[in-house]
Write the structure tokens for this entry.
Amino acid sequence: MKDKTGRTLAILVAALAGVVALAACSSARQPVYPATPISPEAARGLAPDFQFIAYQGQNVLGGNQASLYSLLRKGKPVVLNMWAGECAPCRREMPDLQAVYDSYKGRFILFGLDVGPFTGLGSREEGKALLQELEITFPAGTTYDAEVVRDYEILGMPTTFFIKPNGEIVRKWTGLMDKGKFTELVESLLTSS
């Protein structure tokens, strides 16, 4: 009788473990990043606002701390480039972004937002080190708001947004962008703004 009870208990435990394993592997789980915009701004096609801390470019940004909307209030289009310190494509495109930014001298604001701490692709220190190593001078910084990655639906790195002064996102580009493509998209943004 004792042997039969032990066997029954073992079968019940195994069955319960199987049910738990199936539930854990169920495809009904929610994705990490929802397919629909979660912020009211994104739902209307507007860039969600966020606060950031400047690594560099405080003279353009208006200080050590600012927000995306404070940049937009300057009346210029904004190119928001989300990157990370340990992102190889980000590293490759930064010099091209710098060259185009330099050639348009003040016609738009380029801001590089380091989201490495939220994507597992580098720390803030690694982000700052990358800017120094590549001699990047365009305004850049980071945020302590992890919701930015979700609000902007960042699914790949780098991701660049082309934003009119009214906050309307006119283009989102995910992946490496060369100098020619970046120039083309900046021209399109300037024409539409």
User: Anything to note?
Assistant: Strands lie at 51-56, 65-67, 78-83, 109-114, 140-142, 159-163, 169-174.
